[in-house]
Amino acid sequence: MMAAAVAMAVLPVSAKSPREKSRQKPAANVETVEKRTIGPNEEITLRADMMPQFGKGRSLYEFRTWVMNMIRVPKTTRERMRKTWEPVNVAVLFVVSKDGLICNVETQLAGNRPLDDEDLKAEIERVMYKSPKWIPAEQDGRNVNVRYMMPLQFNPR
User: Fold this and answer.
1) Residue 21: pLDDT band by 50, 70, 90 thresholds?
2) 3-class state of residue 123 by DSSP
3) Which 3 state secondary structure label does DSSP give 118?
4) pLDDT band for position 90 (cuts 50, 70, 90)
5) What contacts 139, CB < 8 A, 6 or more positions away?
6) In a 3-state reduction of DSSP, which class is residue 148?
7) Which of 29, 53, 55, 132 is the most exposed place for a label (fewest CB within 10 A)?
8) Are the beta carbons of 106 and 147 closer than 8 angstroms?
9) How far apart are CA 102 and CA 147, in angstroms?
């Protein structure tokens, strides 16, 4: 019994439990992504006979969940949110192209204000452009480009 107590005392003690460590997301790495755009002469619609579909659930909600799980909130953004203790509400505008790829990603704060946090903006764009391919929208039997707006909220912890 004495040996077990001595062995326990020698093991390093972590300030955070293993459970807390698993919840933390690693810091965002600088990663370049190919920014895809739709040409200026391409038509972009807001509605189609069959809207684009993502994943098994085929919904925008499922895509939003995927995005939020993939985003690694930058340290600078987390520190800023902790100082003000206010969430950051971001509107992400994007196009699902005829090919099923995400294109023309734009980010802005709620109320049409530009997002001035360049680290967060880059991280959102990185994740959006890494999206798996969607099933493209169809209108009158042909594939079309469709624009979406998706709200994201980042809360201070």
Assistant:
1) very low
2) helix
3) helix
4) very high
5) 45, 48, 49, 50
6) strand
7) 29
8) no
9) 10
Quote the pLDDT of residue 119: 94
Angle between helical axes of 118-129 and 60-70 (0-180°, round to 10):
120
| 57-to-61, 64, 145 alpha-carbon distances in Å | 9, 12, 21
Q: Is the pLDDT of residue 1 over 70?
A: no
Residue 89's identity, in one-letter code, is: N
Taken in order of first residue, the domains within the chain and their CATH numbers are: 43-154 (3.30.1150)
Phi-psi region of 55 (alpha: psi -120 to 50; beta: other; left: phi over 0): left
DSSP for 39-97, written as a single string: -TTS-EES--SB--B-TTTTSHHHHHHHHHHH----HHHHHHHHHHT--EEEEEEEEE-
Phi and psi (nearest 5°) for 141?
80, 5
Task: Express each pLDDT in 44-63 by its tens digit.
Answer: 999 999 999 997 777 889 99
3 state SS of 27: coil
